[in-house]
Write the structure tokens for this entry.
Amino acid sequence: QILDAVESRFRDIYLLTTPMPNPGSGTGKMLWVNKHLPQYSKRTIITQAPKSLLAGSDRLLIDDKDENVAEFVAAGGQGILVPRHWNELRGWADETLQVIENSLETL
């Protein structure tokens, strides 16, 4: 649903993900993308580098990690924090889609 909301507003979309620190995590992520989101199989970036390295004034990061969003914004990009029970928007975790849609509307 989050991806649907983003796709309704943007065209040039990439998945940017950091693998877990164990062997096979990156491969597992790509297998998942290929199975569930095949249209993004060539639009997925897997990196250990900070996501903020890809920030720019015309770029938006939607992420569930507070630090990733803060660093991306500090580097000149725009960011939306996905509410999850482990981040500062934990109180909104049950309203994730609505928060994302509202945030997208304010861009």
